[in-house]
Amino acid sequence: MKEKFDLHHDLVDLRGKIIIVTGGNRGTGLATVKHLAQAGATVYMAARNEAKAMEAIEKLNKEGLQPGNGQVKWLKLDLSDPRNAKRAAEAFIEKEKRLDVLVNNAGVLSGPFEKNTDGLSTMVVVNYISPYVFTRTLIPLLTATANEVDSDVRIINLASIAHRFTPSIVRFSQIEDLNVEYRGRIMSGFLRYAHSKLLNILWTRALQKYFDAASPPIPIVAMAIHPGGVDTFSHTWPLPWFWKPIVALAISDPEHGSYTSVFAAAAKVVRDEKEKYKGAYLDNKPVGKIEVPSKAARDDELADNLRRLTEDLLRSFDI
After folding, report:
1. From the CA atom positions of the chain, what is the Rg in Å?
2. Global pTM?
């Protein structure tokens, strides 16, 4: 593994490739969109707010998308309801005949515990259920692309090192196992976030198992990544000019914070060593390092239980 990740030399040529990055209108998602478009891809910025997305796209176009001169388009995606996520995927399938890379970047970091009208934790819906549905709907197109000669199809799910802090008792036999509130615990909001990121790693594991077990195997590489701590907030503090360099001592700016996502999406080494990266969990130090996740995140039975529970729920919602 190289200590330094070089955007100009370590990426495959993405000209002619189609990529989706969810939540790509700000922060690390926006930087991910930029780097992949500059490598030549047509990148769909999947976001809920059209005005904000178009503003972000205009900013990228003004800054320039050289050297690859890709392009960026908007795809309406609302992860607050899995039904909307399915509709967004179906709309994309009507627009494009291939999909080379899907980066499930969007998610929420914090917020009070609440349930939606389906009786599901809103954080779990946004961070896991809706991305699951969005991806599931796109799998036929991803598979068709993967079956082309010299294909290089990848699915990247953003997880977090926070998953290691999920309390050890985790089960997936009923809906309430997705709605863990951690009431009465210190930093319950953080624990709910950690729990949602554990779901993403287990889902990635189950997804890769599904691809590998197909007959014939589907040549798609699924990876979960920890992007590292990223400063998306110091500009909102009083005296941002004072705080920004201090915060930078501990965590990355969005530009560098996107590197692990970009590595997973387009690094040459992933193309050249696919077996090594199938179902892998990647860290950011150094960028793209294969790391061992928590014991719970490596539990195949837990991953299978989560997949069954998720599918059962979606059937009950007629999704």
Report:
1. 19
2. 0.91
Say if CB 240 and CB 137 are below 8 A apart: no
> What is the C-alpha to C-alpha distance for residues 173 and 310, in angstroms, rounded to an integer?
10
CATH of the domain at 310: 3.40.50.720
Full domain range(s) for residue 211: 18-316
Triad 222, 273, 278: Cα angle to 5°: 20
pLDDT in tens, 128-160: 999 999 999 999 999 999 999 999 999 999 999
Contact at 8 Å (CB) between 25 and 56?
A: yes
DSSP string, 178-221: T----TTSTTHHHHHHHHHHHHHHHHHHHHHHHHHHSSSPP-EE
Tell me the catalytic residues: 193
pLDDT of residue 26: 86
Instruction: Give the amino acid at 247.
Output: V
Average pLDDT over the chain reads 90
Report yes or no on 9 lying in a domain. no
